[in-house]
Protein 1
Amino acid sequence: MINGRFATAIHILTLLAREEGDVASSYIAGSININPVLVRKEISVLRDAGFVATQEGKNGGSRLAVRPSKIRLSDLYKIIYREGLFTHSKNMPNQHCAVGRRIGTIMDNLNVEAEQALLKRLHAISIQDLLDKV
Amino acid sequence: MINGRFATAIHILTLLAREEGDVASSYIAGSININPVLVRKEISVLRDAGFVATQEGKNGGSRLAVRPSKIRLSDLYKIIYREGLFTHSKNMPNQHCAVGRRIGTIMDNLNVEAEQALLKRLHAISIQDLLDKV
DNA sequence: TGTTCTGTAATAAAAATAATTACAGAATGA
DNA sequence: TCATTCTGTAATTATTTTTATTACAGAACA
């Protein structure tokens, strides 16, 4: 679902987009109302993607590394749902049944279609757009 | 995610679309490789929606109640994800923070946008279309 | 009237998410 | 220098969600 990590990432980035200096993970966690460790983990993903920069040590924290208008939600989606939002069931369908044999491929194609539709829409929305709504 | 119940429903309907008479839940469960009770539960939802008809008792089972071309995946999606695929986190964000105060509405809007994009695509695909691929 | 289906409730097991604890290392500055 | 306050990350626990199982009443049929 689009919540969970995706919502967390959006919240983090929108918050950072509004703040001047380095923002501590505990502060961000206080705004989202989740555990600071989860924030740090998500930030490490965002950092790997080049969206944020982090300063360790006292008075440290994170800040945006690019302009908010450069962060599209489609990028975020791809980073976070690397393995596809619409994942496989791990129960192997019955291969002796014609439908069971084909359903895997059918669902795969469907997932691709669905994700493409989603990404196309998310591509048009940036963190700046969300920021404008705050 | 699009799997789980959604994939189950699609599998059930595609199977029923290929079969002549009433199909038992245990047979369907054997094709999907899940528990028959889950199949019966999902069928009860599909029945409430008017897509399938069920015959109880010996030699009973389910069959399609409408033509496969009349069942669009967008309909299925709506039936199954009544409360929205992209649901809320139940942690209330910090209302003393400007971002925390607005993020709920922002995510709600985003979810609507995302679902609309998804539904638009799913609207163009029917069970008949999937059947043609089997 | 026994057999074989369904419907559904209740419970248990498994998987996915989120929270917490713990601690080493980095930067700061008194 | 060294106490303080940050981060990063591993390990564990707790919670929630999803799936599976068990159980049994009722329907239809031969």
Protein 2
Amino acid sequence: MLKVYNTASKSLEEFKPLNQKKIGIYVCGVTVYDFCHIGHGRSAVAFDLIYRYFKYKGYDVTFVKNFTDVDDKIINKANKENVSCEEISNRYIEEYYKDMEKLNIEKPTYEPKATKHINEIIELVKKLIEKGYAYEVDGDVYFSVEKFKNYGKLSHKNIDELKSGARVEVNENKKSPLDFALWKKSKEGEPWWESPWGKGRPGWHIECSAMSMKYLGESFDIHGGGEDLIFPHHENEIAQSEAATEKPFAKYWIHNGFVRINKEKMSKSLGNFFTLRDVLKKYNGETLRYFLLLTHYRSPIDFSFEGLDAAKEALNRFYNFVQRLEETEFFKDGERDENIDKYLDSMIERFELAMDDDFNAPKAVGEVFATIRMFNQYLDSVEKKDKKPFKGYREKFLEDVNKISDVLGVFDASSANWFIPEDIDVEWVKKKIEERTVARKNKDYETADKIRDELAKYGVVLEDSRNYTRWKVKR
RNA sequence: GGCGGCAUAGCCAAGCUGGCUAAGGCACGGGUCUGCAAAACCCUGAUCCCCGGUUCGAGUCCGGGUGCCGCCUCCA
């Protein structure tokens, strides 16, 4: 039974889809005006994990993640560089895809842009005005928060408290400080579209309502995003959408926690961020993804390079084991062992149990490593007793790890991608190792050590075992 | 000021609808292997921020502290 934490109810709920096996997920994506930082990466990984797990569970998932491509920040940047907003947004969408590919993020079903849905947005705003939920003042259109009786139900805020706590309102057009813009009159130098209220552009929240409804229908299963979006963005989305359709909007609200630097939220405005680009120069995408997966998606992650190093070492351990499986000879009539039987049989089950519990990836990962330890112990003992390892164990492990890998997006079933970089001449390395083996047989250790040192310059690490020399390029 | 979250070994991190040995990873230390070395593998460690309560039994529930963080403004 899959349980998900619903921000709206502040509790774990059993996941019950709206329409059997067909589910819809909408996640707020990024505003494309700059490179993505680790926080964006975290959110992407979290929802990618969720998307993949639903598919694993047999759901037919329509996954929508938008690009906000019209916004003050984009306009500012465009004006600063003296180029169009479109050029800015297209540029950073391109960069976004490069980062996402390295993080092994699967492409959502749809990735709509706000600027391509102006008609839908205008229709929605018109409907809200007709229904009396919105009003126009001098080319701007605002949503009247007090008209929507359930306002605050997601973020658990109370309208009166919000009112008393509201900051000094700069916008004189609004009837109430809580009201928010659905449509904004365009100023000089800003992009605009024709509308019943004159030349203008959409407000921030309305695009997500318009696009989610277009691709997923008026009511859908899951809506997600970073926890900073709960208020006001998602609260406003609910108000707009439910006011317009008079139907429940999203059923489950899922929010990921922040990435922090020294206990503080990583954010553009604080300036304490690392871009994905920067980190990916030093660490590969799998390491970063694994690092992000190691903390439950709702908890804060303290970003650190020490943490990335630990993540890298953990993956080394995983791939060392895979390599061991690759290089060990297994036999159909090999030695069986009760303990390893138990662990291998239950690995997938334990994985699912963990994931069913609100996508507990850190726990799921732990189950894999626990199995690896048992398997290593088994192989050690079999070797020591000069017996043969059982072939079925390797097959079972690899088969199940493959399934797990499809969900987690880390843990390849082959060690080569991890240990052997593309730019290394494998044949040359093998030749050198052979030369060294000959030297060692002749007890010419001087030559052997020289070859070892030479290979070490290229990062090649040798592991001498009883019968052969194994090698890798350690990350 | 209002609302909410977190505090587990040297570090990271699961567990928290109470009860099996408090997962897993990193680091340290010990060992196996080895020509040496490295690598690899195995082993080893915490009674869960403090105080009080509920209970046969609490890291897990309740109350009170302390500390840290987030939202209330653009933000994944």
